[in-house]
Amino acid sequence: MKTTLASQVLLALSTGLALVTPSSAVDTVAATAATTLTKANAASGSAPYRETVIRYFDRLGVKIVGGKPARIADYPWQVSLGVSWIADPYQAHFCGGSVYSAGWIITAAHCVSQTAAKDIVITAGTDKLGQDGERRNVRRVIVNPSYDGQSQDSDVALLELMAPLPLGPAIQPISLMTAAEEANWSWQAQPLSTVGWGATREGGQPVRDLRFVPVGLVDRGSCNGALAYDGKITENMVCAGNSEGGQDSCQGDSGGPLSASLAGKAKLLGVVSWGYGCARPGLVGVYTRVPRFAAWADACVAQSSSCQ
Length: 308
Ligand code: ARG
What we know:
Blueprint: H1 2-14, H2 27-30, H3 39-43, H4 47-57, E1 68-69, E2 78-83, H5 89-92, E3 93-101, E4 104-107, H6 109-112, E5 120-124, E6 134-143, E7 157-161, E8 175-176, H7 179-182, E9 192-196, E10 211-218, H8 220-223, E11 237-241, E12 257-262, E13 265-274, E14 285-289, H9 294-302
Parallel strand pairs: 8-13
Antiparallel strand pairs: 1-10, 2-3, 2-5, 3-4, 4-7, 5-6, 6-7, 9-10, 9-12, 10-11, 11-14, 12-13, 13-14
Helix pairs in contact: 1-4
The structure holds arginine.
Arginine binds at residues 48, 198, 248-254, 272, 274-275, 278, 285.
């Protein structure tokens, strides 16, 4: 099915048709967007990026399971990663991300590992894709050097923005949970929260209005059980969800935050990474374990010229 869609796109592209000219509606985006779509910039990129491009060309009605509407003021670190040459931020959306600082975004490696920086635009400061918000082009994609695309181990990456975001009530960084904070049990009984513009059911479409869902931490042992993920959960992943199913992140939420509240302050514990389907009983969401990467991310941003 996907191969059919992909080959249709390739066919259309190989005819040499100029399929898209970017709108100048968003200046910062248009600045680096291609004027004519080429086979190379449309057909390459990470899987979520390619799926978005294919959906766009197929004119499919564009795009968190069991969640509720979320307001950006409650999750001001939430951003959308979009295809930079698709003008509508809703149609362009392919992954989530979190504001690390005014100039940096933390997201999932699988969202960006095969996608060039110039093909990504981020939208911050809004809970409605296509309305308000700040858009920024990306200068550099830094994938964690240990990322393994097969196992999804170490599924984390940083995006350096071309220009800093204006921080305010709708755009704020979230601090990364450290290894020392993770060891403190006080927060672990509290519900965690994950948020995104992803599908509201397995196989569904992304949504225009941001949603959140409360989830609970699931211990690695039971998540790795034979009837669950059967040993695929590494020390660099955390599981969170609801074992009865029904509440989960889903396609399009990847790269977005799993946050905990520590002494009333939000901390980034996870990055939406993978799962079998969405919200299935016994198969909770799998997230990158941020405390294992907090030191890497801090060092990378502090010494960005030497980071790769
Ligand atoms: N890999 C998906 C994405 O690219 C996220 C899947 C999360 N799945 C889950 N069941 N929690 O958007």
